[in-house]
Amino acid sequence: MTFKLFALSGVALSTLAMPAFAQTAAPKPVPVAELVKQVDIPYSEFRLDNGLRVIVNTDRKAPVVAVSVWYNVGSKFEPKGKTGFAHLFEHLMFNGSENAPGDYFTYTKQLGATDLNGTTYFDRTNYFETVPTPALERTLFLESDRMGYLLGAITPAVVDEQRGVVQNEKRQGDNQPFGLVEYKQVETLFPAGHPYAHSTIGSMADLDSASVEDVKNWFRGHYGPNNAVLVLSGDIDAATAKTLVTKYFGAIPKGPESVVPVAKVPDLPAPKVETMKDRVSNTRIYRMWAVPGLNDKDSVALDVAAGVLGGLSSSRLDNALVRKEKLAVRVTASNDSFAQVGMFSVYADVRPGVDPALVAKRLDEIIADLIANGPTADEVQRVATQNASGRIAGLELVGGFGGKAVALAEGALYSNDPGFYKKQLATLAAETPAQVKAAAAKWLTRPVYALTVVPGARDAYVESTPPAKVATAPEAPVKGTRGALPPVGTISDLVFPKVEHAKLKNGIELVYAYRNAVPITQAVISFDAGVAADVPGKLGTQQLTLDMMDEGTTTRDSIAIAEAKERLGANITTGSGQDRTTIGMFTPSANLGGSLELFSDIVRHPKFDPAEVTRLKNQQVARISAELTNPQGLAQRVLPKLVYGAASPYAKGLGSGDAKAVAQLTRDDLIAFQQAWLRPDKAKIFVVSDRPLAEIKAALDTRFGDWTPMGAPGTKDFTVPSTPATPKIVLIDRPDSPQSLIIGAAPTSLVGTDELLPLLAANDSLGGDFTARLNMDLREAKHWSYGVSGNFRRAQYQTPYIIGAPVQADKTGESIKALQSDVKAFLTTNGVTKDEFDSTVSDAIRSLPGNFETAGAVLGAMQQNDLYKRPDDYYASLPQKYRALSVAQLDAAARAAIDPAKFIWVVVGDASKVRPQLDSIGLPVEVMSAASVADVR
After folding, report:
1. Of 120, 128, 144, 126, the residue nearest 50 (C-alpha)
2. pLDDT of residue 27
């Protein structure tokens, strides 16, 4: 990028007057091989007589153990007419077993489990939770019970319930912009009958047809111990693991061996070009190929090719189509590797007003150039460094969706090698441009699936036709045969890291905590700004300013910044909440010096190049248009003004802003915002690192200690009275929606600095947990939704209560009535029960060590304590505070805070189906088109 001189206003000149060239040289990034050496997960393994493979990783950093069970069964095993069965069965595994009847989450909640869930994909179904060490024995009992003692708990009612839940999960995904693309992708890339030729969620018709005997046969055929891998990672050793696993899993008999289906990588007979319509804001152009799976020698090379094309921030597609030629507003490329095949995908979102044919032509040319000439050595190394950095960060978690247990289980199940992740990293670090070029030439020159998605009405949605319910006699409860649940030992309270305070030379406060589980440093500069600081009449100014921060400094252009981050394995992000605006940094500590130099350059010396401002404005306007096609985006643009009142500074939170205002923003507007709000006298720096405070402070002093504010600081005015809307229903018409998104919002008199603990504890029973009443009613009892939640949206000066409920379209009105009834009952005649109270307190205390397993969680807690004026040891004091609560306190707090008569309802759905359902609710109904939401200011 070339730099040009411009006629600058006085404001602009003052920005360039900062000491941009007084920086010391940054150290060179460490070689990627050095980073790869830091990725290591020691393990041992054994196998029970019944075939269960057990892998153990000892990690004593926290008193928790991740329990992860992976079954060798996924959607690729499903025969014709049974699509979606693997995933449906995953849901059934959470509905109780013979010796632990009822909802599985009621048991894990008593244990204080964190990072718990189950997932299904083409190759596997897995179940996982992280529990306090003294709760491990009971957890192994529960997991073994659903492995070996499930069939008696599967009833017609349970199957009907979870069938409805899964179908609403499907509707929720299908309801998103581009939500139908995956079906086209797998059905086109793979021939009919191929194991990967249908989506994991399945078809409505096949889900409708699932019977009790079908799902029982699925269990019998696939859920034996010899078809599973159990990983224990954390505060456990191999000898203890063998004793406990043998005790609880050893008696489960072997089952049939899952026969992995043959799944060759198919070739399309010829290129296939197709166009589909969707209610989207922009045209998206896809290029897709079926490619080899992760065990193929070309898999890693294809990962690199995807990174170079559209994965890196400095990717070729980003640089050409987005930055330089400005033909697209977003591009990406990915290589999704599965056990036997993969899918290589590239797409570009066409910039409004640009000819899609031109974008398609350039997209194909850039792909062809990579195939013909390969990547550079520097590009390969940048991809490898980013990957290794992410892997290091993943070592901090023992379980969850991406921790150590996942790495070991994936390797064991897919590659028969728990250490396969290490081989992949070594291959990545040694990858050469020639290898990447060869793999791209081999696989990406085959016939392509070229799909273009254009704005337009969708085809008619294929809905479910559930089978008629047959009256059956009530089934007698299954009598357990394994005795009582094992006891849970004494669980120690949280030991929160010591928080230390210091000040830089210019007075900026530094808040620091030491964590050495992984060699990573995370830092956040938190500015007293947030949504409340956005500019009236120019909403979106803050977002555009933040987006511009890493798009060029006075010494680096946007490509140089992106490449520098990649060489360092660093990530620099921006964000804003209601009250604070943040610029954050993540880096391997080995590259701390170089990352801090780059971080300070971005924070202190943004250039706001006029050409880049124009480009980013176009991207932001396109993003706003996309928000107007998304159910959540539409609701969140309408809700703030209703619940906070038009005069509240929080009412300015309209997604990415006002499109008309953003289009008119100037460079001077952005500089003015930056100087008023992103300044040292509004900043605090929070750091969690494995490097000592003295080193961190010295490094920050070098980069930020001489930073001084310029001009007058910005101010936020919360003194103007603001009146929320009166209760009503606002229906936003979004045609062709198979679901309605319901948002219920109740204003309160609460402020963020209030002591909300009794209220949050009470809400755990109403809307704050999976087992809370709102979710259990609409999801589990009525199966009208995939999930419902209710929470306080805590901010410094206003804290409303917000319910979110995506429901099937034909149950919209009844769902609102059910929510109203549940809330009213909870706040009047049916408050917190003793069992709910005991479960809430137990979970809140016991889950604390798991909740603060990572440095990122500690970093967030430090910022929350600062914002709400709480002491540094607040989280360590929570066990004592929870133990002092009572049922009466919780009921009183909830009833004082929430008035069920004040709820305002926003519904996003197909008005032709939804509007008639709302008349009987008894509230005024306003209908607005999705297009008109753009003008809500």
Report:
1. 144
2. 81
